[in-house]
Amino acid sequence: QLQLVESGGGLVQPGESLRLSCVTSGFSLDRYAIGWIRQAPGTGQEGISCISADGSSTTYADSVKGRFTVSRDKSKKTIYLQINSLQPEDTANYSCAATSGRISHCVLSPGDYGWWGRGTQVTVSS
């Protein structure tokens, strides 16, 4: 079955960087777009980045544009989220998720995604 497993979260200070990983199995990245969605305590889900199934298109929320970069390594079946200049407001649980049929584009709406990992916690604090 489709599986997504995130890693790379942790406790960091403001201004530091992290690289999150999403290891996938049970499906081909050529047929599924992957999104990154975060949720802070007491708030709703926020779609922050995605990459299309063919890898040609990436999308970012305004809140992270310029600081976050999504990429993938098909040979490792892994999607990465590079997060730079972390701020306390970036504290959240970060999940990756998959959606089928988004070949040349992707969307940030969490409701578009049908398969989810459990997430990895990112905490930014001095």
Task: Bin the helical content.
Answer: under 10%
Strand percentage: over 45%
> Could you say which structural class the secondary elements and strand pairing correspond to?
mainly beta
Shape: globular
Number of separate strands? 11
Write the layout of secondary structure elements.
Layout (H helix, E strand, L loop, with lengths): L2 E5 L2 E3 L5 E8 L6 E8 L5 E7 L6 E3 L7 E6 L4 E6 L8 E9 L14 E2 L3 E5 L2
Parallel strand pairs: 2-11
Antiparallel strand pairs: 1-3, 3-8, 4-5, 4-9, 5-6, 7-8, 9-10, 9-11
Q: TL;DR of this structure?
A:
The chain has no helices and eleven strands. By secondary structure, the protein is mostly beta strands.
Can you offer a commentary on this structure?
- The chain is an all-beta fold and 126 residues long.
- Helices cover 0% and strands 49% of the residues.
- The protein has no helices and 11 strands.
- The strands form 2 sheets. Strands 2, 4, 5, 6, 9, 10 and 11 form a 7-stranded mixed sheet that branches. It has a 4-stranded antiparallel sheet with strand order 1-3-8-7, with no helix packed on it.
- The mean pLDDT is 96.
Notable characteristics:
single chain, 126 residues, mainly beta, four-stranded antiparallel sheet, globular
